[in-house]
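Journal club prep — side note

Before the paper discussion, L.F. wants everyone to see what a predicted structure for a comparable chain looks like in token form. Sequence:
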Amino acid sequence: MRQSDVTVRMAKNQEDGPHVEAIMAKLDFFQWDDFKIDWSDIEPNWLVAEVDDEFVGCIQVAPARPIGRIEILCVDPDLPQKATYLVAKALIDQAVGTVKMYGAQAVSSMIPYRYADYLHGALNRDWVEIDDGAMILRRLV
């Protein structure tokens, strides 16, 4: 697999929402039991990655100025290590580019402790660790 084999595009509401939900569940992202999130309205804040028209990953993009955010990078855990790296790189590069096009001067993100290898990779690619903490969630509806 090569980087050029990975296609990154903006997620489509009805088509990609179930895929985003499924990959997040596959990665045990849902550590809560009672939240029923409606994934049918995810445009324009999610990018998805495909290889050979198969959904293999996603990332949330929150453009803002002066600091944008990218969050919730999810790559199919069944992919080989090299493919995982290429998909993650493609999603991050496109997410950073999207935030930059919006006018951000910097981009921030949170990497869960269980993905220490992602943190190591980011620190080797000009990211700077600025703090640590807990990712929290509150139901709004």
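L.F.'s comment for the group: The mean pLDDT is 90. Keep this in mind when we get to the figures.
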